[in-house]
Automatic annotation (TrEMBL):
Span of domain STAS: 4-126
Stored InterPro entries: STAS_dom, STAS_dom_sf, UCP029548_STAS-type
Organism: Oceanobacter antarcticus
Stated name of the protein: STAS domain-containing protein
UniProt lineage: Bacteria, Pseudomonadati, Pseudomonadota, Gammaproteobacteria, Oceanospirillales
CDD domains tied to this protein: STAS_anti-anti-sigma_factors
Pfam families noted in UniProt: STAS
Length: 163
């Protein structure tokens, strides 16, 4: 699998996030900072998530994506769209309940936007732990299956931060 990468673009008022390769925990700090920046600005008409080039997406990243949708819906009355042409990734999205918080299109994203890499070299173990906990709590709130799957992980991580 190709190492993960996150690219972003704005195109005609639409915020576009492209995940490339195997997007994992090591990108969570950078991705969280980007999410907070974009959602606090609120200068967009819609949000698109392009998974056309994604080979894998871990649960932390999925939680962060769900957070984008939940905040976009609650704060801006926007339901983001996910482009997911890979049937295995689409199956994961559906099993996590993403069909309740996203429009999911099972086709590649065709665009004319100019993407830039979103890079953040800041690595803070405690901040990463908090982002992992937060992302998994978002997933747990999507459905009971996710709650069962991730509750032990969240409890373990919450206990480890107090020690």
């Amino acid at each position: 699998m190709t190492s993960g990468q996150i690219q972003v673009a704005q195109y005609h008022g639409v915020e576009i996030v492209r995940l490339i390769g195997d997007v994992r925990l090591n990108l969570c700090t950078a991705f969280d900072r980007y999410i907070r920046q974009v959602l606090s600005d609120g200068m967009f008409a819609n949000v698109l998530i392009d998974l056309s080039a994604a080979e894998g997406v871990d649960s932390t990243t999925l939680g962060q994506l769900a957070k984008i949708s939940i905040v976009s819906r609650d704060r801006f009355d926007i339901t983001p769209t996910v482009f997911s042409p890979d049937p295995s990734i689409t199956r994961i999205l559906m099993s996590m309940g993403f069909d309740h918080v996203f429009h999911i299109l099972e086709e590649p994203f065709a665009n004319e936007a100019e993407f830039r890499d979103w890079v953040d070299d800041t690595v803070d173990e405690e901040a990463a732990r908090e982002q992992i906990i937060s992302a998994h709590k978002v997933l747990m709130d999507l459905n009971d299956s996710n709650r069962d799957t991730f509750s032990e992980l969240v409890e373990t991580l919450e206990c480890s931060r107090t020690q």
